[in-house]
Structures are given as structure tokens and as C-alpha cells.
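Structure ticket #2291
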Amino acid sequence: MKITHPELFNFTVGFELECLLDPADRDRSFNYSYKFRCEVAQVVAQVGALGVDGSVGFFNFEFSSVKLPALSLLYKGSDLLRVKINKLKKMCEAATVQPLERAGLHVHVSRIGLTPQQIVNIYSFVNMHRVWFVSVWGAETYDYASYEAITPYRLEKMEHDALLAVESDEQGIRLCDCPHDRYRKCKYFAVNIHSYFPTIEFRAPRSSYNYNIMLRRIQAAIAVRAYIPQVEKPTLEGFLDFINNNKIALHYLHGFLEHKKSQK
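Resolution: structure written out below.
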């Protein structure tokens, strides 16, 4: 199937899929913790290429994807990604591991080529239209991905930080290595422009093992990244028109919007 406007999606995408053990099932004894960590290590080892690093915490683990071309996650998405997600789902269901709604699907889109103002616009746009993004990403707010009120003070800070991000990218410096005492706090916004990768990190989407839901949430981040550089003053109406005009490319997201419309 032909992509409508492929030139708009010429950037890379990555994601982190975090999973937690359901608190109701937690046995905080050392033996159970050890058992859980062994299961996670087995899942990480067997799923492999989905996540390359697969870091393991005390009651959580996280897969981090390789960088993928945005086009590979449009229309029906990546067949390889589908296979890996389905394999991950089966293995985790067989173990004691389950995704929690408050756990994150963190989507990273490249910020290379964006101006400081475009980075600020992405941050502002998502936070100003949080109701719409909650309907797609499935999370209102939680400790590690909070939506922010857009105030003149906040915008001033974001403009400074966006300029710092662009300068550090141009110099090949990791952002967290720069003198930047706000990094730790701002990292946990729903839109994190402070990622030490040269990316903008969308932290709000909830975790899922459902491939269609996961792809739709990734596509929403891709759509924001592709739409914002095309306009001077982004609006929700313009964004929805952009999705509609690219409905072949944004297949799962478009279908979701049509379903929501039919329910009204």
C-alpha cells in the first residue's frame, strides 16, 4: 500500500516497554524476588532483538528497541515487531510477568532537524490537548509521566531547554552531561525534551502487549513529530486533518479515531 506523504516521516523512532509485577501478586521475600528476576532474564534472553538491553529492576523490567525508521511503523507496521511483541506476550503470560497500566511505553522520536521552537511546540501541543492524548495513550498522569500546565514561566523554561537540546545535539554532547540541574525533574514530564539521546521522549502512553494498541500509541507520537514542523501554529483540528489526510499511513490510529467518532 502506498504511503501518502513519505517525505514527512523521514526520522527514526524507538521505544521502551516497561513491565511490572502486579502488586497484588508480590511476595516480597527474597526467594520470590529471585524467581521473578530469573524469569525476566529468560524472557529478555529469548526475545532478544526486540529489546537489546532488557534492563531488570527489583520488580520490573524494560525492553528498549533498536532505532526504527518511522515509515516501518506506519500502515500495518513492522512484521518483525509484530512477531517479537507476540512472542514477548506469550512468554510473559507463561511467567508471572504482566504489564501494568501505570507502567510506560516510552516512545522516542528523533529531534534531529527540529528547531528549538518546533521542540517547544511539540511539548506545548501535547500538554494543551492532554484529553485527546489520554484517549489514545490511555493514561491521565502518574509520577513518571506528568502532563504540565502551559504557563508563560513554563514556556520560558522550555524555550531555554529546547535551545540547549539543539546546541548539544549539534555538538554531539549528551544532554545530561551538560550543566543542567533541571534534568532529573523534567525528565519525568509526559513529553520529555531533555532526553540524553537526541530524541523527544513521549512518556505518557501506557504499556501493552496488544500489538495493535501498542502500534496505535507509537503512531500517535509519530504523527505529532511529523505534523508540528509543517505548521507555524499547531491546532488540534489541523492535527486531526493531518491524520485524516495520511489515513493510509496512520492506519491503526485512523481506525481508532473513526471508532471513537461512531461511539458519540
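Closing remark: Confidence is low (pLDDT under 50) at residues 49-55.
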